[in-house]
Amino acid sequence: MLFLGCAQQSQQSQKVQILGSGATFPQPQIEKWIEVYAKQNPDVQIEYTGKGSGGGQNDFKQGLVDFACSDPPLSESLWKELEKRGQPLQFPIIVGAVVVVYNLPGVENLKLDGEVLAKIYMGDIEYWDDEAIKNLNPKASLPHEKILAVHRSDSSGTTKIFTTYLSLVSGEWAEKVGNGKTVDWPVDRLGRGVGGKGNQGVATVIKQNPYSIGYVELAYALKENFPVVALKNKAGKFVKADESTIKSAVSEISGSIPSPREGYRESLEAMLNAGGENSYPIVAFSHMVIWEKYESEAKEKAVKDFVRWILTEGQKPENVVKGYVGLPEDVTTKLLSELE
User: Rounded distance, CA 283 to CA 263, Å?
Assistant: First the structure.
C-alpha cells in the first residue's frame, strides 16, 4: 500500500516540497543539512519543525509530514500501526550527547555521578552544598542554595534518553519513576522542578535562573556557553562530552544496529553508560523515519536523494554542526546498502 504524502508539488514552481517534524535534539544539525542541500538542489524545498520526538512521531502517523525525526527508536506498537499503511524505514542519521548543564555562579568543572543526579531529580538532594555533591567536588565552593531542577515539558526523546540513563544507574529511579518521553518528575511535587519546551526552552530556563541544573543536547550547551558537568562513566572516570568521548561510546555498539525495515528493534539502553575508560555515558543516535514508498514519484525520489545525501555528504566534517558526531563509516555503508 502506498502512503499518501502530505505535501504536494507546486504546479507553478515545479518544486518538490518535503515536510518533516520531530526531535529538537538534532534540530540544529537538520537545519544545517537543509541549508546546504537546498543550495545544491534548488528544486527541492525542505521544511523541518522541531516539536519533540513524540510530536514528530504523531505527525508522521497522521500523515502530516513526509519524514519524522525521533531520538529513541519507535516503539514496536507504533511500528505495527504504521505497517498497516506502508513500509516504514528508520535509521540513525547523527550521533549526539545529552549533557547536564548548570547555572552556578563561581563554580566550574562540577563533577556528578548518576546516583547523585537521580537524587537531585527525585528531590532527595535539595541544596548545592549537600554532602553527596561536596564529596564529589571537595575543592569547590558550593553555596547553600536550593537547586532548581529543569526538565522538558513536552514529549521528548531527550527526556527518554536522560531518564533511561537514570534508570540504568539508579535502582530507586528505575523503580519509582522509570523512563519515557514524559515522566512524573518527583522534584516538581516539591516545588523545586520546572519544565521548558524543547532543548532551547530548557536552555532558556537555566540561563534565566541562577542555581539551576538541567539536561540538553550538547550543541545547545555549546551555543549558550554553559558549563557542562563531568559525569562518572561505567569505568569510574569523570568525563565530559566531546568528539572523542562520544566516538568512544559509539564504538562499543555500532555493530548492533538493525535493518531500517526493523528499526524498532534497536536498543536505546545498549548505547547508554557504555564501557570504555573514555566513553561519555549519555550518548545516543538520533533517527529519521521515512516511508519506503510515496504516492508521488517525484516526492519519493526527492526524499530518498536527501537521505542518501545525509548519509554521505552530510556526514563530512564541514557539514556536521559542532556538538554532534558523524556516524561511523561502517554504519553509513551498511545503511546505504540496505536502503538501496
Answer: 18
